[in-house]
Structures are given as structure tokens and as C-alpha cells.
Design goal:
The chain folds into 2 domains: 69 residues, Arc Repressor Mutant, subunit A (Orthogonal Bundle); 83 residues, Lrp/AsnC effector binding domain/regulation of amino acid metabolism (RAM) domain (Alpha-Beta Plaits), CATH 3.30.70. It starts with 18 loop residues before the first helix and ends in a 20-residue tail after the last strand. A hairpin with a 6-residue loop joins strand 2 and strand 3. The protein is built from 6 helices and 4 strands. Strands 2-3-1-4 form a 4-stranded antiparallel sheet, covered by helices on one side. By secondary structure, it is an alpha+beta fold. Helices cover 34% and strands 17% of the residues.
Length: 174
Amino acid sequence: MPIAGPCGISGRVTRRLDRFDIDLLNLLQEDNLATAEALARVVPLSPSAIARRLRALREDGLIAADMAILAPDLTADRLRAFVQVQVHEHAEERGIARLRAGLAAAPEVQLLVNLAGPVDLLVLVVTRSMREFNAFADRYFAGDPCVRRYETSVVKNEIKNRPAVRLTLQDVSG
């Protein structure tokens, strides 16, 4: 699927990317604070051309966010749990949409995805304690009539957390 500009209804991007854009996007996923001058040492473009491309990539929505990933030592005492949610087979779509919207808006939710298979949603919940997690689970899962069942797995330790997606030229060829 070629990458080409902001996502529309089809989920495809409409802006054509070239190898320079791909290189810049990959480098920014490693260090989003890299200056145009530093990037120009790796990507054979002038710093001003790189700055223009980065501005266009951001304006086109191909860079969704610039954010800091906190050191594990800073957040090591947080309780992190993956919750697998199964909704009732005959639940109203409005109710399921309300559940998704509520979870998406909750500051404790770090990841929310729809799944295919026996589980409908996977939710990564981060709280300060088991008490806070239990209150969250009661509010969003146990108390929701759309939820058939949910199962929780608590994270013991983090082995890898790298939310980068390596792009290649195949991503821009038709």
C-alpha cells in the first residue's frame, strides 16, 4: 500500500513520499529532536530543504505527534495491565462505541485497539496502584452492560518498548 498524504476515509495517505521522506521519518522515530543540520549529515539534502519537508510532513499529518518516552525508572512503580475485553455478541453498536470512546478518553489508557478473534478490545491500562486499577476496571468493564467478560494480565517487567515503525521504499512504491 503506497504511502501518500493525510489519511482520508479509505485510510490511505494522498501525499507521495520519496526516499528522502522515508529516511527522515525513520530518523525522527529514533530522535524527534534532531535538528535539520544533524539530519542533513545523514540525508543528502540541505538543512533548509529538510526543514521544509519536515514542516510538510507535519502539516500533512504524517507525523502524528512529537512526544517524550519517559525512562522506565521514572514509571517503574506504576501498575500496568493488559485487559482483554470481550463484548456481548448482541450489544448495540452505540453502546460499544460509547465504551470505546470512554476508554479512549481515559488518561489511564495508554493503548486501545480493536482485535479480530475471540477478544474484541485490548486495553493497556496504567495506574498508580491495584486499588486504582480495580476502581478503573469496575467503572469501565464490570459496570458496562456491553462487556461480556474481561481478563487482565499484569505486566511484571518491560523487555522492549519501541513504538517505531521502520519504513522502506516498498512503502512508497505502488
